[in-house]
């Protein structure tokens, strides 16, 4: 178990929660110890390895869950999986309404069905869609029967004796929120800004042009005074602006790759375009991608295609129930 003491004022710790068999490797769960209350930011998956690491860490920091505020930065299961343990122990739970609603809507499987139908018309073979039922996000999801206090953009909230500002940064998910401590210029960036991996930007049925929203959300925090940035995965940094520049360049070159692939293969489906993009999968070819990685790659390709459609640089035609793409 790994705990890092990040700073004393406020008293912030990072618990490293392992994510077995996941390329993200671990989740950073942050703990702020106040005089009367505690704050925990994000939890790890709903699986024993995460539960063990998180609660051993919280015990050693003498965190009392009955006097804890749990802030869930966004709906993803690696951040929310263990919320039930907190709810049962009497913690207060904070989250943006949009992501809470998505979790509630997911209980009957409808959000997954939307995605599967979408991927089907985008040319993904039914067998690949079936294979992806092992997806960790689905398997280790939280039980969404918990109540939350919803937060909104710009809101200031006192958690563990420290004043935080909520910054709503849609893109990675519709309801993702960063937490910012204005006095200290510390920002918890969750999966909005990661430093040694690129946040995954997906197609979402309930958020048109997620990539455009994401780029706008990068602009939104670009000029924020930051001395310490604490991300949801991997290591943080002492500034965010240069990382934002790099993320913008990444998406610009991604958009370019999609356009070039569409020009080279007129009438290709999204599923046929996806392997033309460069994926950092340790030298593996597209055919060797595990189903879950193919699923994420499809979602990411679709987010870039949607941006190009929206900006008039690609055209889509429906042929026999399948979408095919052409450059303008
Ligand atoms: Zn995420
Ligand atoms: Zn994450």
From TrEMBL:
Top-rank taxon, per record: Bacteria
Transmembrane intervals: none
InterPro entries membership: B_lactamase-like_C, Metallo-B-lactamas, RibonucZ/Hydroxyglut_hydro, Sec-metab_biosynth-thioest, WH-like_DNA-bd_sf
One Pfam family, short name: B_lactamase-like_C
Domain annotation Metallo-beta-lactamase: ranges: 26-233
Name the record gives this protein: MBL fold metallo-hydrolase
């Amino acid at each position: 178990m790994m705990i890092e003491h990040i700073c004393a004022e406020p008293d912030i710790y990072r618990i490293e929660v392992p994510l077995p068999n996941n390329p993200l490797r671990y989740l950073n769960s942050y703990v702020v110890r106040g005089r009367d209350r505690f704050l925990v930011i994000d939890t790890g998956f709903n699986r024993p390895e995460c539960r063990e690491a998180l609660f051993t860490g919280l015990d050693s920091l003498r965190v009392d869950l009955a006097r804890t505020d749990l802030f869930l930065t966004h709906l993803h299961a690696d951040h929310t999986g263990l919320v039930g343990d907190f709810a049962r122990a009497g913690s207060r739970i904070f989250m943006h309404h949009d992501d809470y609603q998505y979790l509630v809507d997911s209980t009957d499987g409808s959000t997954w069905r939307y995605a599967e139908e979408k991927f089907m018309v985008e040319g993904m073979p039914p067998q690949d869609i079936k294979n992806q039922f092992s997806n960790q996000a689905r398997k280790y999801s939280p039980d969404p029967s918990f109540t939350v206090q919803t937060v909104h953009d710009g809101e200031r909230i006192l958690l563990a004796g420290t004043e935080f500002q909520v910054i709503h940064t849609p893109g990675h998910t519709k309801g993702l929120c960063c937490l910012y401590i204005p006095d200290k210029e510390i920002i918890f960036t969750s999966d909005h800004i990661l430093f040694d991996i690129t946040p995954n930007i997906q197609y979402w049925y309930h958020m048109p042009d997620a990539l455009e929203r994401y780029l706008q959300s990068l602009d939104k925090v670009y000029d924020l005074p930051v001395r310490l940035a604490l991300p949801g995965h991997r290591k943080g940094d002492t500034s965010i602006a240069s990382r934002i520049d790099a993320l913008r360049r990444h998406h610009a070159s991604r958009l370019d790759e999609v356009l070039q692939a569409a020009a080279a293969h007129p009438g290709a489906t999204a599923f046929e375009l996806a392997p033309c993009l460069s994926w950092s999968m340790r030298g593996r070819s597209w055919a060797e991608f595990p189903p879950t990685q193919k699923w994420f790659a499809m979602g990411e390709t679709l987010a870039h295609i949607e941006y190009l459609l929206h900006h008039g640089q690609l055209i889509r035609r429906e042929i026999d129930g399948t979408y095919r793409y052409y450059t303008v």
